[in-house]
Design goal:
binds coenzyme A
Length: 204
C-alpha cells in the first residue's frame, strides 16, 4: 500500500497519539491536500461532484441499501458527497471513492468518518460496494487500507465499524480486517453491532 497524504492534524482528544503529525508539502512548498491510497487492485481518492451518478447506483439501490432505513434519494446522495467534502476540509479524511485500478471504474466508497457512538465521536470505517462487484474481496481490501491509514497516518489508537446485526457481509468484512465485536448499541432507534480494531503498538 502506498500513502500520499496531505492531511491536517486535528487532535481528537484521547483518540490519537500525542506526537503531532506534520503537514505534507509538495516540492514547491504548497500544502498537498490530495489523498490517494493504493492497494493491489484499488485506488481510493476523494469524491468529486461528478461521482453522483455512480453513487446513486449504489446508495439508491434497494437491495444494497436493505439494511438502511431506505435507499437514498438523489438529494441524499448529493448530501453524502457534500458531507464528505466537508469532512476532507475539516479533518483531512472522509469516505473516499473506490476505483478499480485496472479499468478506472468507480465501484464504491470506503473511508473513515467520525461517528457519534453513544455520545463519543469515534473514527469509523464505512464501506459500500456496487452489487455487481461484491464478493470479490474489494470491500475488505479497501477497508484494510483504511484501517492502516487510520493507524499509521492519522495516528488513531482505535478504529471502529458498526453495522446492523443481520448485515452479515458487512460484519464479515469487519472480521476479515481483524476487528472484533465490542457490543450492541442503538443509533437513531436502530440496533447496531460495534466492532473495534486496536493499533498493535498502542501504548498501555
Ligand atoms: C458490505 C459490502 C460493502 C461488502 O462488500 P464486498 O466487496 O462484497 O466484500 P468482500 O468481498 O470483501 O467480503 C464479503 C464477505 O461477506 C461474505 N458474505 C456475503 N454475503 C453474505 C451472507 N449473506 N452471509 C454471510 N456472509 C456473506 C462473503 O462470502 C465474503 O466473505 P469471505 O471472503 O469470507 O467469503 C457490500 O455487500 C455492500 O456494499 N453492502 C451494502 C452496503 C452496506 O451494507 N454497507 C455496510 C454499511 S455498515
Amino acid at each position: 500500500m502506498s500513502l500520499h497524504n496531505g492531511i491536517k492534524n486535528y487532535p481528537i482528544r484521547g483518540l490519537i497519539e500525542k506526537t503531532p503529525r506534520p503537514f505534507v508539502f509538495d516540492k514547491i512548498g504548497f500544502l498537498k491536500m490530495t489523498l490517494s491510497i493504493e492497494t493491489e487492485r484499488l485506488r481510493l481518492r476523494e469524491f468529486k461532484i461528478q461521482d453522483k451518478m455512480n453513487l446513486i447506483d449504489i446508495l439508491s439501490d434497494e437491495d444494497s441499501m436493505r439494511f438502511y432505513p431506505h435507499p437514498f434519494s438523489e438529494k441524499e446522495v448529493e448530501g453524502w458527497i457534500d458531507w464528505n467534502l466537508k469532512n476532507y476540509a475539516e479533518y483531512g479524511f472522509g469516505l473516499w471513492a473506490v476505483i478499480l485500478k485496472k479499468t478506472d471504474v468507480f465501484i464504491g466508497d470506503c473511508g473513515i468518518t467520525l461517528q457519534n457512538i453513544e455520545g463519543e465521536k469515534l473514527p469509523e470505517i464505512g464501506y459500500h460496494i456496487e452489487r455487481k462487484y461484491c464478493n470479490q474481496g474489494y470491500a475488505t481490501e479497501a477497508a484494510l487500507a483504511c484501517k492502516n491509514y487510520a493507524f499509521e497516518v492519522l495516528g488513531f489508537l482505535k478504529v471502529y465499524t458498526y453495522t446492523t446485526p443481520d448485515n452479515l457481509s458487512s460484519r464479515r468484512v469487519a472480521e476479515k480486517i481483524g476487528m472484533t465485536p465490542v457490543k450492541n448499541f442503538s443509533k437513531k432507534g436502530i440496533q447496531e453491532v460495534l466492532y473495534v480494531a486496536e493499533r498493535v503498538d498502542c501504548p498501555q
